Amino acid sequence: DKGEFRHYMLKEIYEQPKVIKATMEGRVTDSRVLEQALGTGAADLLANVRHVQIIACGTSYHAGMVARYWIEELAGIACSVEVASEYRYRKHVIQPDTLFLCISQSGETADTLAALRQAKQAGFRAALAICNVPGSSLVRESDLVIMTHAGPEIGVASTKAFTTQLVSLLIFTLALARHNGLSEAREADIVAALRQLPGQIDDALALDGKIAELSKAFMDKNHSLFLGRGAMYPVAMEGALKLKEISYIHAEAYPAGELKHGPLALVDSEMPVVTVAPNNELLEKLKSNLEEVRARGGELFVFADGDAELQEQPGIHVLQIPAVHAITAPIVYTLPLQLLSYHVAVLKGTDVDQPRNLAKSVTVE
Ligand code: F6R
């Protein structure tokens, strides 16, 4: 039931404060992650992990890409991320003491399951699943499970599953990092940031009207570029995937630093460039990338921290996002990009909940 909403996708976007809260429930206190909530024996397992291999497809893969930044930064443990359909068809090396982490909303994605089954033959320390469907094949075949409590996701384009995957991945990262030198103070700081998420996402949802306004600029465009740096790069990838899936506008994501190495040649007034720019240490670098785009006549849409001191000017649209913790910023900045793709699709009159050629669950390869 869509209730007051015109589409399931919009309803699911608006459910995010609630389902993020549900996903944290019973797993974090005011200052700590409750490791036992990850399953019996989780502490012993995590204490011995030396490498994390993440496998997923589509949006779930983007969640894994964000997690890599967290795992290497907070736990200091090497992490590899790969799409399941590539991993399963190549000769791969599994490092000793690898935790094999599959991320899947449905838990039935054929390639992800095949990668897990193959890796089992090769041997790893344990398999952890991050999944939204209890009793799914992925859940049944994994040693540890963190269920995302997103509830049923009807819209083919994944929204609330993604942000609850991110919350689960951050909780997992903190549990892992605790065995690898993360201080109690830093853990408490990040847990506090997690607990602020529902409120911050409400604030991001309040930008809906402004985003609907911005979306008009995309209606007659055929191409777009999404830029981000650090953990915001996978957020840009996810924003681009949403736009192409439901509005059928070609959207490509690039790490902002790669701009000069090719994509800048594409930039002209017909190529809107979307950038996610929280106020982190990479902001100054990102600003000079924006100048490069501006100098070529590209129209910029910047989602930025108010402190970033980016001014609205001809050709640069700035949407201020309330200040957020650097670690949880990828979760909050996902929201405006979901809303942008939604509004562009509505303006174009596409089938938002059932985009052409796509299925919700890809159980065949
Ligand atoms: C994108 C989308 C797909 C899925 C992908 C993996 O909006 O929904 O890219 O993310 O098919 O599906 P799961 O997570 O069920 O394995």
Automatic annotation (TrEMBL):
One of its GO terms (biological process) is amino sugar biosynthetic process. Residues 42-182, 214-355 form the SIS domain. It comes from the Bacteria. It is an enzyme of class 2 (transferase). It is found in: Cytoplasm. Its EC number is 2.6.1.16. The active site is at K360. It catalyses: D-fructose 6-phosphate + L-glutamine = D-glucosamine 6-phosphate + L-glutamate. GO terms for molecular function: carbohydrate derivative binding; glutamine-fructose-6-phosphate transaminase (isomerizing) activity. One of its GO terms (cellular component) is cytosol. Keywords: Aminotransferase, Cytoplasm, Glutamine amidotransferase, Repeat, Transferase. Catalyzes the first step in hexosamine metabolism, converting fructose-6P into glucosamine-6P using glutamine as a nitrogen source. Homodimer. This is Glutamine--fructose-6-phosphate aminotransferase [isomerizing]. It comes from Marinobacter mobilis. The chain holds residues 246 to 610 of 610 of the full protein.
